[in-house]
Structure of TetR/AcrR family transcriptional regulator:
Amino acid sequence: MATDTSASAPPEHDAIRKPKPQARTLQRREDVLRAAMSVFGQRGYNKGALVEVAEQAGMTHAGVLHHFGSKEALLVAMLQYRDGEEAAGVPGRAQTEGPAFLGHMLDTVEENTGRPGVVQTYTVLSAESVTEGHPAQGYFRDRLDGLRDKIAGVLAEVTGRDADESEVRDDASALIALMDGLQVQWLLDRDAVDMPRIVEKVMDELVDRLTTRHPAPPFPRPQD
Amino acid sequence: MATDTSASAPPEHDAIRKPKPQARTLQRREDVLRAAMSVFGQRGYNKGALVEVAEQAGMTHAGVLHHFGSKEALLVAMLQYRDGEEAAGVPGRAQTEGPAFLGHMLDTVEENTGRPGVVQTYTVLSAESVTEGHPAQGYFRDRLDGLRDKIAGVLAEVTGRDADESEVRDDASALIALMDGLQVQWLLDRDAVDMPRIVEKVMDELVDRLTTRHPAPPFPRPQD
DNA sequence: TCAAATTTACTTATAGGTCAGTAAGTTGAT
DNA sequence: ATCAACTTACTGACCTATAAGTAAATTTGA
């Protein structure tokens, strides 16, 4: 929250050569954030201890508190950092357009297969966030909401439907749910599910169905 | 509040009375288990405190420990109790056959809409269980595995396919993932998703596809 | 030398588990 | 039927970790 970074204006020549105190600080903060991802991912937020985060970042837990103020603030910072990192990972980044976005999602699923830590961080924290007064509740609510909008939009664009159609929105929700749900199964048993294969197939079917049965849903819904 | 046990003097020589003191004990244990479901559901296992469980069951935390030995054992007992309860809720119960099972699943989704507590208990604990050394890990692994088998079997039966086909198994995994994933979204925002509607539609599509394209998958997979 | 970074040393909570004791049964021999 | 011997179901007090947060001292770097 409070961007207490009242620090001086960042010197534009902050090359890698001269590690100014603040340049170095940024690196340390990042170390802490990475450590937080690892610890909160492996243990969850509640059980994850600041001492362990600190250790992995090479300092004491008081040092971590110095940088982030509180455990809660650290979690929030970590979540934002993770978003930024994810966005930065993609070349075209930002808002990938149309079908490319679906492809990008699939790529992510494939990549995730090689980094259970990241998957676990997301899975554990998102589920934990539904508990009473969890600090990440707003974050995940917003994230899911935004993702749903985004996917519905892309789906509409790809299939020539309207993003407001309940069928399209339902499919967006379903796609997100599928990916999240698969992660839990996969984390509990890596060999039990082939995430990329399943997601790809579902995406194909879904786009196909939406495209083929163009204007209206195929069956009348008695209840509604 | 505590020792109201002295109240109704149990008629010792009155025929079909519960012979053992365990009759009452069983009830108390059940109280504790229900309390555990509520507390662990709302706070998760790690943050859920024994004192709170105890309070809700009308005893002290030492009393809870007397019955269950440890917090971990309590969780395991709770999970088993939950299974038993769920099974008991269904009349025909045990192994519902064929298409009836899919209907039963859908009914459950519909019922769940009215009891967020139960949904939350499952959602939070299953995700939490993927963390290092979590006591419920085995439980959820087994549960998901069994459910996958069951659904694959039912799907095979309904559509005339083989339960060993990877497509059928994938669909079983996907269906479970869908339901679990939707729960997270729903718990974070009740109005964001209509769980029963989505699950019903997906089930329909899924059965339809599996039935229509009978023997073999429709398209050759270039990469594999 | 000044300020930020970081440590050391505490404080304050919380929480699981142990333990001795007690009240209310239960059982068995007389 | 009664009473001693024993068991069960607890409670209250206590112990021990663990963990977050704070304050003051110390180091480090420009």
Observations:
- The longest helix of chain B spans residues 22-47.
